[in-house]
Design goal:
Distance between the termini: 50 Å
Helix content: over 70%
Radius of gyration: 18 Å
Number of strands: 0
Order of helices and strands: HHHHHHHHHHHH
Number of helices: 12
Largest sheet: none
Structural class: mainly alpha
Shape: globular
Strand content: under 5%
Length: 287
């Protein structure tokens, strides 16, 4: 997939569209909510950036994933929450304002934390002298692909809220189709590696996703946050921006094998999120 029209043009464009859709759901006030609910935001950020990184590393070691696939899992773990987390959080009666806030803050912070986690993953899962940190130019490129579309989406929402609400629903549907398409491409282009390790990759994705959502819900509840806030955190840490992980794997790290975990996870997370949403919805009706 290297150097092709798909990776150089279509994938960045698709990611930009997804991030534009995320921007359509955000306002400046969303980022100021961190002042109003610091505990909930800090718990969510801690779970996403520190706790899940450790959990993912332990899952990779426990299942003895090959180094390249383990790094791909860590790349996925470092990716911020996906825009679909907002939809699932709403359906599960979660705190949507908290969810949107976490998604926005994580998307910005990931531009710093993601390269660090990936570099440390190379050092941990491969020999230290094989560390290949993403080049600065590519980090700038990723920043532009992520931040500019989000800012554009927020600007559209600020100027035309009605249009933004209608467009957001359409972009959301398109985003799911786009993610599914690129997941299929990533899997297809690396089918030999996937066939060789499908059981390990599948098991790692399922275990990591279930642990992510379980920790994302249990930790906030244990710290005294409401059920709605816990649902928001669970969705945020359980549904990752797989499109961003696939983009970085192919366009920054230059090897589609690193994209396999994100491609597989993109299927797993929607299944578990649907089951979790159904459980939460029934629990809410009984309450």
């Amino acid at each position: 997939m290297e150097g092709s029209t798909v990776t150089n043009v279509l994938l960045p464009g698709a990611l930009a569209l997804i991030m534009f859709g995320l921007g359509l759901s955000l306002t400046v006030e969303d980022f100021w909510r961190v002042v109003k609910m610091p505990k909930a935001v800090l718990v969510g950020l801690f779970a996403q950036m520190f706790l899940l990184t450790f959990v993912c590393a332990m899952v990779c070691k426990w299942l003895a994933l090959p180094p390249d696939l383990a790094i791909g899992m860590m790349l996925l773990a470092a990716a911020p929450g996906g825009a679909s987390a907002n939809v699932f959080s709403h359906l599960a009666h979660g705190d949507l304002a908290l969810n949107i806030t976490l998604t926005g803050i994580n998307s910005v912070l990931a531009l710093v934390t993601l390269p660090v986690i990936v570099s440390l993953s190379f050092a941990y899962f491969k020999a230290a002298d094989q560390v290949v940190p993403p080049p600065f130019a590519k980090i700038v490129e990723v920043s532009l692909v992520v931040l500019l579309p989000v800012a554009a989406g927020m600007l559209v929402r600020a100027r035309a809220q009605g249009f933004a609400s209608r467009a957001e629903r359409l972009v959301r549907v398109i985003s799911v189709v786009v993610l599914a398409t690129f997941s299929v491409i990533a899997i297809g282009k690396n089918s030999e590696a996937l066939q060789e390790h499908i059981q390990l990759v599948g098991a790692a994705c399922v275990v990591f996703n279930v642990l992510s959502m379980a920790i994302g819900y249990a930790l906030p509840r244990a710290l005294g946050l409401s059920a709605a806030q816990a649902i928001a955190v669970a969705m945020e840490v359980g549904i990752h921006n797989a499109a961003l992980a696939i983009y970085i794997a192919i366009n920054v790290l230059g090897d589609g094998v690193y994209a396999i975990p994100a491609a597989v996870y993109s299927v797993v997370m929607f299944v578990t999120a649907t089951l979790f949403t159904g459980w939460m919805a029934r629990k809410s009706l009984r309450a």
